[in-house]
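Worked problem 6 (solution included).
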Amino acid sequence: MSDTPECPCGSGQPYQQCCRRYHHHGEPAPTPEALMRSRYSAFVLKLTDYLRATWHPDTRPATLQLDDSPDWVGLQVLSSGEQEGRGQVHFRAVYRLPDGFGYLEEASDFVREDGRWFYLSGQTREGRLDPGRNEPCPCGSGRKFKACCLKR
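Solution. The predicted structure is:
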């Protein structure tokens, strides 16, 4: 999906100038956070080949199906860091449910080998979001929940 105007990773940049260079041009992500953001975008865009290529061979699943993947609507990086070829990223990804929103929160581990970062594994937890009427909408529109998705 090369015509996606804004990158799904939440950087605020156009997809062409952000994650597309990793997805379609083979450029290695420079940090664990950049790789995690590009992987989130790949989940949104259903780019299974990219996801498998950036998953460390020791932990990569034999197959990856995204047909039943949630409707991802937003990403928040809570923390990230790297040291001596190891990296960690703690993030929360929000998805739409038939009657609201849920989230997947993960503390992910990454490793750098031969100049490339790879996703190793993560500790995840999921939950449901119940925003108040005057809180920002979880869909990422920037509007209050009552003026956005609460109306649906």
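Discussion: The longest helix spans residues 32-45.
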